[in-house]
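Re-run requested by the PI after the first attempt was lost when the workstation crashed. Everything re-entered from the original request form. Ligand of interest: 5'-deoxyadenosine.
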Amino acid sequence: MTMHPGERKKVFVKTYGCQMNVYDSGRMQDALENDGYQNTEVLEEADLVLLNTCHIREKAAEKVYSEIGRLKKLKEQRSATNRPMTIGVTGCVAQAEGSEILKRAPAVDLVAGPQTYHNLAGIVRRAELGERVVETEFEIEEKFRQLATATPKQTRSRGVAAFLTVQEGCDKFCTFCVVPYTRGAEVSRPVSQIMDEARKMVAAGVREITLLGQNVNAWHGLGADGREWRLGELLRELATVDGLERLRYTTSHPVDMDRGLIEAHRELDCLMPYLHLPVQAGSDRILKAMNRHHTIDDYRHVIGMVREVRPDIAISGDFIVGFPGESDEDFEATLDLVREIGYASAFSFKYSTRPGTPGADMENQVPEPVKGERLQRLQALLNEQQEAFNRDCIGQEMVILLEKPGRKQDQLIGRSPYLQSVIVDSSLGVPGDMVHVRITGAAPNSLSAKPV
Ligand code: 5AD
Ligand code: SF4
């Protein structure tokens, strides 16, 4: 492989983990493109490979090292040519493990934590000159300022439904979670930056924006009226952007579901009837050990208020089974809560011990087989609920946002207000169109529909 004069270097980015990483990867690609790189989907032709990693559970973190093992072989083949391959680890594993990565995986040339991406081009240049770079400073305000440097063409490539980061980090310190350590303290992006990015996105064809934050409903900022705004006010302001059809936000914490945000669900037609509100566990004892700052009753109360203003709202959640000290009784309480609330969708995980978190040092760790059995039972129930929710949609009329081509040639995939994938005939329109349909079929993970 040789580099031809005038040819641009190519970057391949592989993303692990949450939507925040998906968003960050996109902005990293934009920044590198503005610095002379070209994006590629073909790993073998990449001059720079970035693994944007996740540290949330052990499995996620370990995946990175097996991927580096594969990349090492590719890099060795390339070293015989005049076109070396630079390997970088970014994201939360980079932040958590820092220089340890360089020791454990000598093939890695650079390590850059999530709050350093505004310097990414410089970091990459140093690595290309032979330095083994480790950057793990927290400079989130700088990062936020630099996020909006995308060109209109780059923004268009984000599709018709896209993410916009409004908040990063976490001050809650749940005892199972690495996020406060990998993403740092809670920081909100200023209103003006958010509005600028939203307008640019809409001008480039985005119709649905999902506001992102590890604690999105803890967002706050100085509003245009000189008052301190919370997420409800920000949503109201975004709702005034012409051409922006739909708003969503994720992920929320129950203690930050304030009245203003709940009322926004009543007032704003463009705010979609979907709420991802993790509860993690169904027993007060475990919630306390998790340092969640609320009880099951508080959670019930919030869900009740949200359902009062928006009766059709789809509730989604996250659950952890096998947190240290979780008894059979505690776990049954989780199943009871799930039956009581009724989830349209949910994510559930076995508790994974994360080094450096208080949970790792707790006694009464739950044996793996017990975790496995509990997870199976919980997932069976959640799947049942999701299927029932989808089935109940049959016969309903709804407006969907056409998003992308389907698996079959004559199909398009749209998104329902409740975040379900809806398969329709491609003659219905083009991505970006809002179309009125009637739901005619339901599968566990998608719906099908006909125009009305
Ligand atoms: N083990 C298992 N699941 C976890 N989560 C966060 N930390 C852990 C952990 N140590 C889950 C929580 C969170 C979601 C993003 O990941 O349910 O809401
Ligand atoms: Fe994973 Fe959390 Fe980092 Fe997202 S913020 S990539 S979920 S560790």
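Saved to the shared folder this time. The longest strand covers residues 397-405.
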